[in-house]
Amino acid sequence: MTPKSSILVRVYACFFLVVGFAVVVIFYAGRIQFTEGDHWKALSDSLTTDYRTIPAIRGNIYASDGSLVATSMPVYDIGIDTHAEGISKESWEKNKDSLSIMLSSSFSDKSKKEYMRLLQLARKSSNHRFMLLQRKISYEQLKQVKRFPLFRLGKNKGGLVVQEHDIRENPYGNLAFRTIGLHRDNGYSVGLEASFDSILRGRPGKRLMQRIAGGYWMPISDDNDVEPKNGYDLFTTIDMNMQDHAEAALRKALDSNRAEKGCVILMETKSGDIKAIANLKRHSHGVFSEEENYAIKEKTEPGSTIKLASVLCLVEDGLVNDYETVGTGNGTLTVADNVTIKDAEPGGHGNLTLRQAFEHSSNVAIAKFVMSKYNGRASVFANHLINDFNLGKKMGISFIGEAQPKVKHPRKDRDWSDATLPEMSIGYEMEVTPLQIAAFYNGVANGGRMMKPRFVTHIEQSGKLVKEYPPEVLSEKMVSQQTIDRVLPMLTGVVEHGTATNLKSKSYTIAGKTGTARILVGKRYVEQYKSSFAGFFPASNPQYTCVVMIFNPTAGKYYGALVAGPVFKEIADKVYATCVNRQSNSISDSMKVVHSVLNVYGYYADLKLIVKNIGIRMTGVLQNSDMVSISINKNNAQAKNEFQTDKTVPGVCGLGIRDAVFLLENKGLRVKYTGSGKVSTQSVPKGTNLYKGMEIYLSLS
Amino acid sequence: MNFLYKTKGDLVLWMVVILLSCVGILAVYSSTGTIAFTMYEGNTEAKMLKHFAIVILGIFFIYVCHLIDFRIYSRLSLFLVILAAPLLLYTLIWGVDINDAKRWINLPIINQTFQTSDLAKLALIMFVARQLSRVQGDIKDFKKAFLPILLWVVGICSLIAPANLSTAAVLFATSLILMFIGRISIKYILMVLLAGLGALSILVLLAFAFPKVISRFDTWKHRIEIYMENDEGGSYQNQQAKIAIASGGLIGKGPGNSTQRNFLPHPYSDFIFAIIIEEYGLIGGFILISLYLLFLFRCIRIVIKSPRAFGALLAAGLAFSLVIQAFINMGVAVNVFPVTGLPMPLVSMGGTSILFHSISFGIILSVSRSVEDKPEEQEMQTVSESEGGSENMIIQPA
Fold this sequence. Notes:
By secondary structure, chain A is of the alpha+beta class.
């Protein structure tokens, strides 16, 4: 072969080698397009540009004293991408042990070995390269995690994947849970969270972004960008102390009476502010839950508490004087075919004045008074109830879910019968909610000015007032002052010498009315009762109105005075002792209950005053503004400041959950608890040295 | 008109140059979106204009180089290769460090970085062509023909290797191909291949033993690890490249419509082929490949026609070097090879690369011009005459 042709042969050989390679390149490209095409295209679909939502921060909900009751906190889900490009073999081998140790020791949910096994598995697997490590960790924890071996090498070389989202946190746990409510993004929302959702929610922003190399999102300039607008903060009327009292008292009563469910409403007389609203359902084994807002949603026949309305009508219309009596006969009264009204006690009460009839809650006497005085003029009576007392229509409260009440009117309702008027006069053949009863009684307490129940005082945005919700009046003058002056002694008489003498208090007077109503199941009354007590205190200068309603007590007692009354009394005592304005030297015997509690926490100035009033000497001189504990021992109270400086766990046994959580969380502990009532045991003993992020479990009973 | 009149050489080759440059300008304009966003505050034209200017400069270089008698390159190669060795050494020690690789030196006066391995590559191929043509008489002689060339090749390649292993490997392979075409005994070439593999393994072993000595070692290892191990379709870059290729389809998304340019690292150089397929489809990719093959084919035509061994070998060497690099770049994009970092000649962004490939082109066209200048009959005669012996093939430059 000549050199020339030799060269040519060799050149062509090389040329075809290159052509062959070109074919390989085309083949590979074709394979990517046709054989694997769907896979890669699917992958690309998840990576294109997108309007990314920038979430708005949901507003907080505050109690009346400014304490936070619902707030949004960012939490983080963390995981590891074991195939992250930057994780080299060495770095993986070097760090996997120490990483497992750190993960195990900080989350203590899996052993070091288990973490190691899972990490190795993910690293080897081709499909499950991503491993979720922990959900919902706090920002503090995240900061720690970022310092872990491997993760501290940075985003790409460490493989840590973090996803942020907000969760709603209720610092008071279950307290007023149903009233504060729940917000679910795609579900059934309840309570204030739902009622004021549009205010709390804010408006999420949107921005057109594109993912670029390295997994970053790059904003693309676009005129349609929307900045997020954070939600407003909601300031409620709820007082968490009173809420605590109300729930505790209700729970106790439901338990001891083995009742089905119950609710309590506590209202400030002047403003109509709802200071506490408790709704509990009792399950077997002493478990309670707050499932429905009975106080607002449950419309039922109120029973005897509505006799106040009958009395007000009779007095306002000047139909009955102080001395007129009616006979109760044998305690039964047939008002229509098949309809007989009975008194609770058989045998009758003899002749009764209106006042006596009210105080002893005689169904027969009240019905007789109303029947005889409004004979042929039933619409006058109905108009009072519907228009003046606002019992027949929704009050238009800001809280969602208010039930539509029903009060019959002779001209408007076809089912009005001869029995309707007497039945209505004693609280049957009508349906109202506990909240309406509360607003009604509160109107009487407030001198005839009936206030609309208020849940929210104002809304703010970052400390600046946005909108105020001033107290609203439902009826400026539901009845005249003279009427109230005549009826008030009847209400106090119920407690002084009527059906509820068990509620008598030495230090202040309670004005109220008991109620015991049979429960209507379908169209028949069954042997089930709802016991209620509605009233206000102190009667001399009413400041709070309270309604207690307990459904189906099964432990034997069912009279309003015996079942609902004690709940009212317990709440009234506590609220009176702590919240009612009065002369400071009149601390009553009821306050000496405090003695039995060994640990009391509070501000030094407050405790000093209380201890002095009870007549015990206080030792230990401290700053007035200090949060202190006092231990009471017979006639000596020892005050100690163990909260600000001390780096140990305080003892919280005997405290309510609210105080316990406040104390412990101020010290940086994370609190988890079970049960209800007072703290009975704490998992970390008093005096143990603290460290940041320490957890403590409390059980309450 | 004078300018056009002077423009000579294979018109098909000229056409290929212009087409490749156009493809390059379009692809670079489209794929610099990300870099423009981060570095030039969204001024997407800045990078393209710079590229455009370099392409124009490159065409000017081609024009100038093709006017020079190719025989001058023979002597120039000796000078260049002697210059290249110390320059490479200088770069290794004092070079500008970009991405952990010292491949660039800063040129004083014009203040531009410049990749010395590109110069060395050109110089070595010219030099090997020169040496081969000089020893055609004793071409089967180990000591006279083979060994001196091999020593130069090994010497230059090993100076390039620490900073730019892939360039060194491609240059070494191209040199071997050139030696093969230049009638060096296949036996020797196989020997060198074996030895080369041996050397590569020694280098790898050394690097494993002293990872700190060669700073690029981690990158190499990582790239190879990813290529060898990953069964999920390669690294992030490979995945993104595949998405680009897959989403392009047969006819592509159209010019400027690439989305993958935002996800692919270096879409304007290492992965430009993926972007081209995304925008112009498999058909676009096929046309690009065809352009390179056409280029290679026309160069082989020069080899056939060239009366002189040096011209033939020079054209063959430069053409193969350019085309092999192009196909390796494409091979990386479609994941036939691990990521190398070699740009696509005349298409990818990158000043030094374009200018030196332009010079290569210019030299090839210079050889082409000398072939075209000769009357057809004379050429045929030369070929037929040369069949008698090898003397006519041998040009001994003075």
